[in-house]
Each structure stands twice: as structure tokens, then as C-alpha cells.
């Protein structure tokens, strides 16, 4: 693990593995997790790619900033970190909220994104009901801490039949998240815009991945997004819910590697 101090004083923790001169792949975690959710992907891709997985502000080893964290702030943190690391162009991936932050990165500095990986995420703006729910949940996390919520949603995050070690990892990540950081992200997420038009007019190669048992972002939603994108591939992973990269890592990694092979040449990037 390393960390970088950004211009506004926020410290971002991150993992960076693989050859420094290989094609960069940046992976953004979801809520309420941290960069360790990408451990199977870092291990698999490290021989051939430069893989960078940051902790978003408010999560993991990064600085916790109370209040509200809008998506553009998360995206500018990613941009600032990559500037510090000397990474100009890169493949960008994100899961759930991380996928929405990846979409915000495309909005703000999409010319640097050579390909996009969106897993179990939605480009649709939040509804009024959803805004109220996220704001209420933010207050609940501050009152109760993370564990009661983690207990409730564990088997929506990962399928009940997933490996016990995976369930334990996901539960640990949720419980370890600082409630202030989680609440700030929830408030920001409540105000997210609609990214469908943005994505539909960009020819960026895109891989969509979704767990067949995901109830947060169902297969139907991924299928609808796939139909609107000019250069997209859709992979549905069986026996997985909202975190297929952890529940079905071999299948997720195979889909990711296949996509990367089609859009990059790791050997020529060195």
C-alpha cells in the first residue's frame, strides 16, 4: 500500500501493482467497501498490466471528510492521483458506486479513458424516493454505525451461497468503513446525474459485467444500457449477486482479460 497527498490536503491510499511501463488499469471500488475488493483482479492482472486501485476519500486508508462528497470530487481525486503517478491514459473500471464515479470521470476527463469497465452499476439519475432513502441511510449510519446495515444487506451484496471467505471479506469491509465517510458519499450519490446520454455518444470500448442474481442493479438494467452503447460487450455471470468480481473471480477475470486483450496490447505498452 502507498498513499498520495492531494492538493486539498486529502490523503488517498492506493495499491499499484504490475510493471510500471505496462498499460494502466484503474479500478474504483463500490460503497461501502475499499480497494481490497479488487484483490483477485490485482493478483490476476499484475503480471501484464499496471493496476491501480485507490481507496476513495472516506473509505479504507484514505482521509475521511464529513459532510457531502459529490461525484465530481471523487472523480477529481482519481484524476489528481493519476497525475501524481504520471498516468496519462488508462483503462478505467468501477463497480456499483465505483462505476458511477467512473462515468463521472468520463464526463470530466474522458479523453484520458481508453476503455471502460462497468460492473453492477447504473447510469440512471437518482429518483426522489432514492434521494430520500440515501439521506435517511446516511443519518442512520451515523447513529448506529456500520454493522447493523452490513448485517442487513450482506446477502444482497453477495449471494447466500457464495463462499464463506467471500462473505466474511465483504462483511469486514462494510463494518470497517467510517460512518462519516459512508454518509458523505451517500449524500453525494443522492445527487448524481444521468449518464446515459454521455455514454451513448462516446465510442469508448466498454465491458459491462453483472451478476445474474444482482437485485441492486439487475440484469435487465445492464441489458438496457448495453443496447444504448455504440461499442459495448455484456457479460452476465451466473451464481453471483452484486459483487461478481469476488463471488466468481475466475469468470470475472476471464471476462476482464478477454476485454483487455481486445482493446490493449500489454506487451507493446512496455
TrEMBL record:
Lineage top rank: taxon: Bacteria
InterPro entries for this protein: AB_hydrolase_1 (IPR000073), AB_hydrolase_fold (IPR029058), AB_hydrolase_sf (IPR050266)
Domain AB hydrolase-1: 24-249
Protein name per Swiss-Prot or TrEMBL: Alpha/beta fold hydrolase
UniProt-listed PANTHER family: HYDROLASE, PUTATIVE (AFU_ORTHOLOGUE AFUA_2G14860)-RELATED, MONOACYLGLYCEROL LIPASE
Signal in keyword set: no
Keyword line: Hydrolase
GO-annotated molecular function: hydrolase activity
Transmembrane regions: none
Record flagged with keyword Hydrolase: yes
Amino acid at each position: 500500500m502507498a498513499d498520495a497527498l492531494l492538493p486539498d490536503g486529502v490523503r488517498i491510499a492506493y495499491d499499484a501493482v504490475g510493471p510500471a511501463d505496462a498499460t494502466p488499469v484503474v479500478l474504483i471500488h463500490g460503497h461501502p467497501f475499499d480497494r481490497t475488493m479488487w484483490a483477485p483482479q490485482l493478483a490476476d492482472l499484475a503480471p501484464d498490466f499496471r493496476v491501480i486501485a485507490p481507496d476513495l476519500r472516506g473509505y479504507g486508508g484514505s482521509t475521511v471528510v464529513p459532510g457531502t462528497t459529490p461525484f465530481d470530487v471523487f472523480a477529481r481525486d482519481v484524476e489528481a492521483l493519476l497525475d501524481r503517478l504520471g498516468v496519462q491514459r488508462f483503462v478505467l473500471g468501477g463497480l456499483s458506486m465505483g462505476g458511477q464515479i467512473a462515468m463521472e470521470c468520463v464526463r470530466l476527463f474522458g479523453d484520458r479513458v481508453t476503455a471502460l469497465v462497468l460492473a453492477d452499476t447504473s447510469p440512471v439519475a437518482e429518483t426522489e424516493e432514492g434521494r430520500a432513502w440515501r439521506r435517511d441511510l446516511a443519518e442512520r449510519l451515523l447513529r448506529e454505525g456500520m454493522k447493523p446495515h452490513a448485517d442487513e444487506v450482506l446477502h444482497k451484496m453477495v449471494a447466500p451461497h457464495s463462499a464463506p471467505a467471500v462473505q466474511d471479506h465483504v462483511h469486514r469491509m462494510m463494518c470497517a468503513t467510517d460512518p462519516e465517510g459512508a454518509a458523505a458519499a451517500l449524500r453525494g450519490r443522492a445527487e448524481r446525474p444521468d449518464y446515459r446520454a454521455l455514454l451513448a455518444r462516446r465510442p469508448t470500448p466498454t465491458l459491462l459485467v453483472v451478476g445474474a442474481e444482482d437485485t441492486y442493479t439487475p440484469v435487465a438494467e445492464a441489458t438496457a444500457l448495453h443496447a444504448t452503447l455504440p461499442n459495448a460487450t455484456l457479460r452476465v455471470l451466473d451464481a453471483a449477486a452484486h459483487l461478481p468480481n469476488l463471488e466468481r473471480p475466475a469468470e470475472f477475470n476471464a471476462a476482464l482479460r478477454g476485454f483487455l486483450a481486445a482493446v490493449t496490447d500489454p506487451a507493446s505498452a512496455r
